[in-house]
Amino acid sequence: MELFTKTPTEEILTEERLKELINSKTRLRHYIGFEISGLVHLGNGIISMLKVADLQKAGVETTIFLADFHSWINRKLGGDLSLIRKVAGGYFKEALKTSLKIVGGNPDELRIVMGSDLYEKVGVKYLENILRISMKTSLSRVKRSITIMGRKSGEALDFAQLLYVPMQVADIFTLGINIAHGGMDQRKAHVIAIDIGEKLFGYKPIAIHHHILTGIHISERERELVLKAKSSGDKEYVQEALMDIKMSKSKPKTAIFIHDDPEEVKSKVRKAFCPMGDIEVNPILELTKYVIFPLVGEMEIVNAKTGEKKIYATYEELEREFVMKALHPADLKRTVGETLSEILHPAYKYFKEGAGRKYLEEMETLKVTR
């Protein structure tokens, strides 16, 4: 179970049912779906693939679902379906495979499925699944679940966008998987799948949700809005506030892309938001907790003023010293920048100097630059 529950997992719905599946020797089949938009960053690349790598080590069959029709509905890449498919089958697929390799997973054991290919293969059965799910799901619940699209509750929608949630749930059962995986923003769709699964398809899938990284250049006001949401106790309010500040390719200054050059990584981290002694909504501490410690295992930080070196064996130890102001943000950021640049160096080499260069050049030709 440790591989399932370890960082960056935030929750499993439910651990008890997962234990039952494991103990019954049931074949475990996973998927995580991705909209196709811009460049891949630490959040949608490294964090997502950290969990995929864990699942591979646990003996789970892993699948990446390239959701081209969902991306079209959600108007990614200008709503150009042919462009979405070209990016999905080229750069995006390669970026996810590279991310998985960086975090210790095996891209050769990864099944990659394009949404439109699946729908063509299963034909009318997919439409039947959407209709069956839609008949068991209220319109109000679908509207409340549109946050999985990165949109706010109550936001104006066209009719096609109302199909997004039933389609996502249908993907789970059409693929025949029993472990649905995604960020915390995917929770509502997964809960629908759990609620209707047994009655319609004979089983309830497990849902695994990983942490969503905060953008590194948030403002003090954005931080205050998140803290206000947390103090309200309203989970939906909190989720929407966190989505407003997540790392996003549409806000390139908030993101570290997997193929950023080493100096750019260090520069971005150096300029990042990191209030001294404060652990609430601190993007640099998040990077240490969710990326560096899981991959490196420890951090050696040098005090720039005294030259003293200290090795932190756990994130908890580092956090305690940060709270006590025994660890200065500048020293922390310097080490985080250097460590991240080393972690991401294989992606930089592949996409900027190696065989992957053609994929980035194609993205530039297609004018998909972020």
Describe the structure.
This protein is an alpha/beta fold and about 375 residues long. It has 3 domains: about 1-210, HUPs (Rossmann fold, 3-Layer(aba) Sandwich); about 215-245, no CATH class; about 260-365, Tyrosyl-Transfer RNA Synthetase. It contains 18 helices and 8 strands. Strands 1-6-5-2-3-4 form a 6-stranded mixed sheet, with helices on both faces. Helix 7 (about 125-135) crosses helix 10. The mean pLDDT is about 95.
What is the secondary structure topology, with strand pairs?
Elements: H1 2-5, E1 9-13, H2 15-23, E2 30-34, H3 42-57, E3 62-66, H4 68-73, H5 81-102, E4 110-114, H6 115-122, H7 124-135, H8 139-144, H9 159-162, H10 164-175, E5 179-183, H11 187-201, E6 206-210, H12 220-232, H13 235-244, H14 262-270, H15 283-296, E7 299-302, E8 309-312, H16 315-323, H17 329-353, H18 357-365
Parallel strand pairs: 2-3, 2-5, 3-4, 5-6
Antiparallel strand pairs: 1-6, 7-8
The string of secondary-structure elements, in order, is HEHEHEHHEHHHHHEHEHHHHEEHHH
Q: Any low-confidence stretches, pLDDT <50, length ≥5?
A: none
Order of neighbouring strands in the sheet with most strands: 1-6-5-2-3-4
- Residues in β-strands, percent: 5-15%
Mean pLDDT, to the nearest integer, reads: 93
For the record, give the distance between the C-alpha atoms at the N and C termini, rounded to a whole number.
37 Å
Using the CA coordinates, give the radius of gyration: 21 Å
Number of helical regions:
18
Backbone structural class: alpha/beta
The CATH topology of the largest domain? Rossmann fold
CATH class bucket of the largest domain:
Alpha Beta
Helix coverage percent: 40-55%
Count of the domains = 3
Please outline the major beta sheet. Answer: 6 strands, mixed
Q: CATH architecture of the largest domain, please?
A: 3-Layer(aba) Sandwich
The geometry reads as: globular
CATH H level of the largest domain: which superfamily? Answer: HUPs
Quaternary organisation:
single chain
Query: How many β-strands, per DSSP?
Result: 8
